[in-house]
Design brief:
Layout: H1 4-14, H2 32-42, H3 55-71, E1 74-75, E2 82-94, E3 97-102, E4 105-110, E5 115-118, E6 125-135, E7 141-142, E8 147-148, E9 159-163, H4 188-197, E10 202-206, H5 209-212, H6 216-222, E11 225-230, E12 241-245, H7 247-257, H8 262-265, E13 274-300, E14 305-315, E15 320-325, E16 328-331, H9 334-352, E17 360-367, H10 375-382, E18 391-396, E19 408-411, H11 419-429, E20 433-436, H12 450-455, E21 460-464, H13 473-488, H14 504-521, H15 536-547
Parallel strand pairs: 6-9, 9-10, 10-12, 14-17, 14-18, 18-21, 19-20
Antiparallel strand pairs: 1-13, 2-11, 2-13, 3-4, 3-13, 5-12, 6-13, 7-8, 13-17, 15-16, 19-21
Helix pairs in contact: 2-9, 3-9, 9-14, 11-14
């Protein structure tokens, strides 16, 4: 990490924004009292973990609507503050075990403990029966890297076993994919999609905490019980059975198949998929419910160019009520993401209170079902209220710091777009340095709602203080982060603790992100994706249509 700091400090010097005029950002009132007021409501037990399709959703979206009205923020979807998002809820019950047979031996793996399986198929029962297990390495087909883990393999009706992340992670070779920086090929979503494109009946990802970026507890809580999906009449590729297995389960399977160094062999371009000589059987029975969730949308209309938009986004949802842990069954989601929602409410109030409104329109989009796979933002990306080629930028807020003011501003996806320059300039004014995500192997750029804006070409900024406390240093934040990921992330223990939290960090980030949005909203320039970004081609194409 120390090697990154000189680069970060240098970036403060060399970057300058593409402003055609000097823009003076006004002082606005964003304070801890405002943050505390919203946090105390949104992260309370009364809101029942803010899960879509529940009473918690009704309370949450109507709270957001009433607050936007009170601030003077106008409805953002015609005359409505809501954008309907059609979802289907699938509550799956796993069979008690996954049975694996081969070589005259039968192995039994307990679901939830050794394996977690689920389905996105809208069917009452989905199963694999005596499905041949095939090891497909990382499960990647990436022509630009000369990589094809499925080469010469017919997996129709079979179940593929694949590793989490991509070959570059932990290799020490920065030229192998992107080294420790996760590519989209490393995300579980990609692995499911690719296995389905190959025709597999099932796909099982081998879980390991470090390359996955989260412990097995997160798999157990996030991939069991009810799951939401977009109610799409033409759904994307999906295998009948999708899931995860623990490392111990994987070791048992590979040992039975006579494979020792399964991880190392997958890191080579010469890797060839191999049948394990084993057959698996497991099933899921489903309860199916179709319903409508809602994104919440507000707008402060621009005074000069109201048909150009800056969109702030934050997901309002969490996991609701689930399995009790230490007697607590409400997954309040205080850090994830009541912090982002409260920060965005404070920014919305600041824009609404301006005597002179910004030249461009500023939109506040509170999206649903992020925890279920970024569904609310995915739906918005497919059904935008405001045209993508008239949307100047997205500023996403997910998990703001609750440990006081920070010395750093960590930009996830640093180097992707010119928005880095705006954020860097504002961080410098606050006496902060800028760093890239210090843990790029966890793929955070693909794990929050800004990704769905990026996919449709809109430059997106995802930044917050997360590395060094202004008062207590790096080790303090490391300890708090380790504690959060170990016992609070996606657990009932993610509670608002006003006696422990220091809300000045949320205020600090909210002010910075307000300043970034204000500057962009008062210039005519459209920030660009940098050369080499995978999102640049889409944006360039859309902007060329805008000019015609």
């Amino acid at each position: 990490m120390k090697r990154l700091l000189p680069f970060a400090l240098l970036s403060l010097v060399i970057f300058s924004c593409n402003n055609e005029k000097q823009i003076e950002v006004p002082e606005v009132s964003i304070d801890t009292l405002t943050i505390d007021k919203h946090m105390s409501v949104l992260a309370s037990d009364d809101f029942m973990g803010r899960k879509p399709f529940t009473e918690g959703e009704e309370k949450t979206v109507h709270y957001l609507e009433s607050e936007l009205k009170a601030m003077g923020v106008a409805p953002g979807n015609g005359s409505s503050y809501f954008q309907d998002v059609p979802l289907v809820e699938i509550t799956g019950t796993q069979s008690p075990t996954m049975i694996v047979e081969g070589g005259g031996k039968t192995m039994t793996f307990e679901t939830n403990k050794d394996v977690v399986v689920y389905t996105q198929r809208v069917e009452e029962e989905v199963s694999i029966k005596d499905s041949e297990l095939v090891y497909a390495g990382y499960g990647i087909v990436a022509p630009e890297y000369g990589w094809n883990d499925y080469e010469g393999l017919d997996v129709k009706g079979k179940t593929v076993v694949v590793l989490v992340n991509d070959p570059g992670f932990g290799s020490g070779d920065e030229s192998l994919f992107k080294g420790d920086q996760m590519t989209y090929y490393g995300r579980w979503t990609y692995k499911y999609e690719e296995a389905a494109r190959q025709g597999a009946a099932g796909v099982l990802i081998v879980h390991e905490t470090v390359p996955a970026g989260y412990p097995w507890l997160v798999v157990q809580s996030s991939w069991t019980g009810s799951k939401l999906n977009l109610d799409d009449p033409n759904p994307p590729y999906m295998c009948p059975i999708q899931g995860w297995i623990t490392r111990n389960t994987a070791v048992a399977l590979f040992r039975e198949a006579g494979i020792k160094d399964y991880s190392e062999m997958a890191k080579s371009k010469d890797f060839k998929p191999v049948s394990l000589g084993l057959k698996a059987s497991v099933s899921v029975t489903n309860e199916i419910k179709k319903d409508m969730s809602r994104n919440v949308v507000g707008i402060v209309k621009g005074s000069e160019r109201p048909d150009e938009y800056i969109i702030y986004s934050a997901h309002w949802d969490h996991l609701g009520v689930g399995e009790p842990i230490d007697g607590d069954s409400i997954y309040n989601g205080a850090h994830d993401n009541a912090t982002g929602v409260t920060g965005m409410l404070a920014i919305a109030e600041a824009f609404a209170s301006l005597e002179q409104k910004p030249e461009r329109s500023v939109v506040f989009l509170f999206v649903t079902a992020e925890e279920q796979g970024l569904l609310g933002s995915a739906y918005y990306g497919q059904n935008p209220v405001y045209p993508p080629n008239q949307t100047v930028a997205n500023i996403n807020m997910d998990g703001l710091p609750a440990y006081g003011e920070m010395k750093d501003l960590t930009i996830t996806g640093y180097g992707q777009s010119e928005l880095d320059k705006y954020a860097t300039a504002e961080a410098k004014k606050q006496g902060r340095y800028v760093i890239p995500d210090p843990d790029p192997g966890k793929g955070y750029f693909f794990r929050s709602d800004h990704f769905n804006f990026a996919k449709v070409g809109i430059p997106a900024l995802y930044a917050s203080g997360s590395f060094e406390s202004k008062e207590k240093g790096v080790e303090f934040i490391e300890k708090k982060t380790e504690e959060y990921l170990g016992v609070r992330y996606h657990q009932p223990q993610d509670n608002y603790m006003p006696e422990e939290w220091d809300l000045k960090g949320i205020v600090q980030d909210a002010k910075l992100l307000f300043n970034v949005g204000y500057r962009i909203a008062n210039e005519t320039y459209f920030p660009q994706w940098n050369e080499g970004s995978e999102f640049k081609a889409k944006r360039d194409s859309d902007m060329s249509l805008r000019k015609k």
